[in-house]
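F.,

This is the one I mentioned.
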């Protein structure tokens, strides 16, 4: 399907939306401190290696140290098919060592940057691997003749320019002429020379190379043959993008347009509403069923429900059709919400093995357009499908939201009945303490819903407790108190 890029820029944030067939697929946001560290190159200092984690923390001069695992450090240690244990982290780095590293994943859930020593630099069609020698081709280019053409072209350009470094042909390089590839290789070679010079003069720790801003980065990474239009609603960003494309992405130049309509661009294309729905756990399906998507620290769980969908035939067919639609929707929701890591999908139970195979095929086909790597497993004995999606940055929800101060991130709040019972227990416990025996009366401060219940459904229990302790109990509504919050005050004592 044809794709569109919408780039919205204002003084407080930058947002980029990728549409496919008019439907929102990805949403990238940059606020304040910037969009992403991914791609930045640092000269860092290694802390003490941690054998139990087979990793080391690296001081980058940032708020938190980066995380460097032994798998992301050093050359390949085993040929294909061999079972060779990874080398000990203490044999690869030592405390105080200076290392050139690149951020491959942004800080997630309070963790520092994920790092690698396999540094790369990307242009529109080619990726430079400065510490390599070989030419590799993107796995998404499946045509053998095109793969060989690209390999031969890049090797010839390497020879002509005297470049002794490795390169990877990106997916968008399919069909690209020699002059386009040569321009990218020359550009990347010049950038690497500057990186090497800055590294030589830098005081560790230091930022050596910072990747380009969000609008240009997305233009570089997401533009391709399927992108037919790129709309930008900021005049200065439009000029910079046009100049960048003219120099490095000539095929994309003709697609770039300035958005000049009075109606805000994201409102015009329905991005605002779609982004708001992407923060909700429930996703409605056209058939009447729905998904419930929950993000936890360990994994993403997705529950499929028939909802109001009754179907027109047997129950098994209703279940199959609901699961089939869910399978076509789930990859888009993961991509839109930028959810990654381990994902467990609880489809509605199906007894027919062929139905299971069709649902799994639909799930895999729907995920083919995702630029993040997706891996699928079949149905387990419990009817669950486990899959994974590569994570490179925080999810949309964690970028734009924070834990609820009322529920402390639990997602649930105590009922008024529960709060009233807690108040009763607190009064009885407090009345038995010596420090309260001189109090003349109690004052309960609580939300309006709790006070209403104490005056209505629980009025008899409250009166019985007052008689039992021989003290008057007064009530006061506190509008600022959230669900589950209350105070018990002894009028001649101190508040608890």
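My design for it:
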């Amino acid at each position: 399907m044809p794709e569109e890029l919408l780039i919205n820029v204002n003084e407080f944030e930058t947002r980029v939306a990728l549409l496919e067939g008019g439907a929102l697929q990805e949403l990238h946001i940059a606020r304040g401190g910037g969009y992403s560290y991914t791609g930045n190159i640092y000269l860092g200092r290694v802390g003490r290696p941690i054998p139990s984690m087979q990793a080391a923390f690296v001081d980058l001069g940032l708020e938190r140290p980066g995380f460097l695992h032994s798998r992301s450090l050093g050359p390949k240690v085993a040929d294909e098919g061999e079972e060779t244990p990874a080398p000990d982290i203490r044999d690869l780095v030592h405390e105080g060592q200076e290392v050139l590293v690149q951020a491959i994943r942004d800080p997630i859930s309070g963790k520092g940057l994920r790092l690698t020593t396999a540094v790369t630099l990307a242009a529109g069609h080619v990726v430079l691997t400065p510490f390599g020698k070989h030419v590799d081709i993107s796995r998404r280019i499946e045509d053998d003749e095109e793969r060989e053409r690209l390999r031969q072209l890049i090797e010839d350009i390497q020879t002509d320019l005297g470049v002794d470094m490795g390169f990877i042909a990106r997916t968008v390089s399919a069909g690209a002429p020699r002059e386009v590839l040569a321009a990218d290789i020359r550009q990347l070679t010049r950038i690497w020379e500057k990186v090497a010079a800055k590294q030589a003069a830098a005081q560790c720790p230091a930022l050596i190379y910072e990747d380009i801003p969000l609008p240009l980065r997305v233009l570089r990474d997401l533009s391709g043959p399927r992108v037919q239009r790129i709309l930008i609603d900021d005049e200065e960003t439009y000029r910079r993008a046009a100049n960048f494309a003219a120099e490095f992405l000539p095929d994309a130049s003709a697609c770039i347009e300035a958005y000049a309509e009075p109606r805000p661009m994201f409102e015009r294309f329905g991005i605002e509403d779609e982004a708001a729905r992407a923060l909700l756990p429930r996703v409605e399906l056209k058939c009447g069923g729905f998904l419930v998507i929950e993000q936890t620290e360990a994994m993403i769980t997705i529950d499929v429900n028939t909802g109001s969908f009754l179907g027109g035939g047997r129950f098994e067919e209703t279940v199959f059709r609901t699961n089939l639609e869910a399978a076509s929707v789930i990859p888009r929701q993961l991509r839109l919400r930028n959810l990654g890591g381990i994902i467990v999908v609880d489809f509605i139970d199906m007894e027919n093995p062929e139905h299971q195979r069709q649902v799994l095929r639909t799930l895999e086909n729907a995920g083919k357009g995702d630029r993040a790597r997706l891996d699928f497993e079949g149905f387990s004995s419990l009817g669950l499908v486990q899959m994974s999606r590569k994570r490179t940055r925080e999810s949309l929800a964690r970028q734009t939201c924070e834990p609820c101060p009322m529920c402390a991130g639990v997602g649930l709040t105590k009922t008024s009945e529960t709060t009233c019972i807690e108040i009763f227990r607190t009064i009885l416990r407090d009345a038995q303490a010596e420090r309260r025996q001189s109090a003349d009366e109690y004052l309960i401060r609580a939300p309006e819903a709790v006070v209403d219940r104490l005056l209505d459904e629980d009025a008899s229990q409250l009166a019985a407790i007052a008689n039992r302790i021989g003290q008057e109990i007064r009530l006061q509504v506190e509008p600022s108190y959230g669900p589950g919050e209350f105070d018990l005050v002894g009028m001649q004592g101190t508040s608890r």
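The domain at 278-400 is CATH 3.40.630 (Aminopeptidase).

Talk soon.
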